[in-house]
Write a structure and sequence with these properties.
Length: 168
């Protein structure tokens, strides 16, 4: 079925079958027959100069939307931009945010409070323990013992103080 035949079928829908929306007269219907180009290359919005109504094609291939004009809707049409794919973008004014203020990240240079509190001056081990804590040391110990069991075939026990001595 061609595009013209589909459009003709849509135009011939009886009022009883319609959704009860805005009806158009015969004069407007004959004028609207010229609104659709024969090819589908047209992707532009169509806005009539009629003061009673504005006609807007939101996307190519969609049924036209009709709405009564008022100052707000005319302003919205003026603040709209249509993309190449037919998507209509509306410019909105930036307003103040209601509620919680936006999050602003304040970065302070230097070490964090946690590091300042837990590193003792002159103690390298305290600085090391901030990065590599006891949980990581226990994981290293378990993995080392498991590898020794696979390679040697016997259980091997690695004491934690020996691991710390090996690390430095």
């Amino acid at each position: 079925m061609s595009v013209r035949q589909l459009l003709q079928r849509i135009r011939n829908i009886s009022e009883a079958s319609s959704d009860g929306g805005y009806s158009i007269s015969e004069d407007e219907q004959s004028e609207s027959e010229n609104d659709f180009p024969d090819t589908e290359e047209s992707q532009h919005d169509y806005v009539s100069d009629d003061e009673d109504e504005n006609i807007l094609n939101v996307r190519r291939g969609q049924k036209r939307q009709r709405f009564l004009s008022d100052s707000e809707s005319e302003q919205n049409i003026e603040n709209s931009v249509t993309a190449r794919d037919g998507t209509v973008w509306y410019r909105i004014k930036e307003e103040s945010v209601v509620g919680r203020p936006p999050f602003s990240f304040r970065e302070v240079s230097g070490p964090t409070v946690y590091v300042k509190r837990n590193i003792m001056s002159g103690k390298i081990k305290s600085a090391f323990s901030v990065i590599i804590d006891h949980t990581i040391i226990d994981t290293i110990k378990k993995c080392t013992e498991a590898k020794a069991l696979r390679v040697l075939g016997t259980e091997w026990d690695l004491p934690t103080p020996k691991l710390y001595a090996f690390i430095g």
